[in-house]
Amino acid sequence: MYWFFLIISFLLASIKTQKPRKYKKVSVIIPAYNEEDTVAKVVGVVKKVSYVDEIVVVNDGSSDNTEAEALKAGAKVINHETNKGKGEALKTGYKKTECDIIVFIDADIYNLTSNKVEAMIRPILDGKTDITKTKFSRASGRVTELTAKPLLNFFFPEISFEQPLSGQFAARKEILKKINFESDYGVDVGIVIDADVLGISIMEVDIGAIEHDMSPLSDLNLMANEVVRTIIGRANKYGRVTMIDEIGYYIRMSIVGLSLIILGLFTIFFVKFVPLSLGVIISIVGILISICYIIKVIIKSINMFKKTPGRNLVKSFVKIHFPMIISMIVLLLMISTFIGAAHFDYGVLSIEPNSRNLIIYADDSSRDNPISVRGPYTVDTAIENESDQIRVPAEAMLTLGVKVNDTIQFDNEKIYSINESRPGEGDVFRLPIGVKKLLDVDNGDVIQNSRLKDIFEGSLITHYYDYNNTTIKEKYIVTSRDKQAAMFEVFLNNESILNSSGIFKNNQTYDISVDGDQITSFNFENNMTESFKYDNSSVKIVFKDTNSTSIRVFARANQGNFLNFYFK
Known about the structure:
Blueprint: H1 2-16, E1 26-32, H2 39-47, E2 54-60, H3 66-73, E3 76-80, H4 86-96, E4 101-104, H5 114-125, E5 131-135, H6 142-155, E6 169-172, H7 173-176, H8 187-197, E7 202-206, H9 217-237, H10 240-244, H11 246-270, H12 276-306, H13 314-340, E8 342-345, E9 348-351, E10 357-360, E11 371-374, E12 377-381, E13 389-392, H14 394-400, E14 407-409, E15 415-420, E16 428-431, H15 433-439, E17 446-447, H16 452-455, E18 460-467, E19 470-492, E20 495-502, E21 509-514, E22 517-523, E23 529-534, E24 537-554, E25 563-567
Parallel strand pairs: 1-2, 1-4, 2-3, 5-7, 12-16, 13-15, 21-25
Antiparallel strand pairs: 4-6, 5-6, 8-9, 10-11, 12-17, 14-15, 14-18, 18-19, 19-20, 19-24, 19-25, 21-22, 23-24
């Protein structure tokens, strides 16, 4: 037992004395060229950051007292005999420091604070990113807006930093070994591009407002040239020039080929005056062009990916290839439509594409959807035990003005109840054999939405409305031509319970019944009112002219009751 407690004690002791997480040394590099007025203040601010271990000022061939001011402030100074440029100054400081995290800060910032410096370093210490770059509260510089951003958006659209040329950076030193430092003002944008392409995580941090000297136009001209050279050089190195130029041409030719295929297929099926042979020739030429150039696009794209170690160019790839991708999707949708419309019977392949109907109601009738797309529909036989009903697609119900549980009668024959389509058969009419004969349709027939009123012309519909304890049956006959309609509103005991519309004929007689027994008749006139009482119920029907049309012709006296009321 003694040995057991001894072993436990050693284990606990070993846990308590485990080494802490490896310490990360932080060095700050400050490139300076004739910055005697500000360098000491910048060094003094950086010294206030507790976890900065080393401050190095790279004096890039200054002719003033920059070196003395930096030494007086407590920084280590490395001198260039001549002015070599910002990039070389950063590279010198980077090589001369032994650290885990390296920070680059300009020497001309008047209002630098320790909080600004900490905002650059903290995300790396916390493991949130490999590199931080800054943005600050002022309008972006002229070189940024007129040169850097347009070129980056063209060649590297995935890079969307607000200020890609800001001079303040922080990074893990190990990561910087993978990046090529430019020797001039192109160093900032070069780091951003390399990090993006190599898949290195880079975060843009807001350090608030900064104040520093504005560069004269002569310096801006030099800066712009160096930034352009760097972006173009990186674009060529990583295959973006090829993507824009050579691949761009191949993509345009691929789109031409795909468009010719679409044009050829369209003329074959939808343009009667174009000979079939011409449509076939156009399609074949399009196929040959598409195959040729799509293969070239694929080969060039693979080579471009090989040039990009991090494979971090998906956004650019999609942007460049997007027009071709859309053309291919359009073509695939068209081909899938033709395949879906193909029928093979007795050795004969027949392709009969049918389009949906776009319906726009321009009248003032009240509808839930004034714009809709409906059809086409397919005919099939009613399933077993459903010989007394027809299943109607929901969109067809809207066109015919019917709903579930309404009834329909053809040529004074049997009355059928209306039901919705079966699950998974949203566009299928299921009709009993007798109904198919009456309507002169057969299994597999495709019906356009616009043909429904022709097929169902003369059908007698009984439409049901339910309101509390009252049921109203409305009878109308389907006509094949839209005609001027009138609206009527039913009031029960002064409460509106029904709004409907359809076709009435002036001076024609219409019957109204209660529980199947006729209770009143009227001769229709525009904007009339008809009233009656039944037991304790008072009914008023108000008719109004409307700027609308309908295919519903209401039943006249010799065809049945226009309205039939059932009071419960």
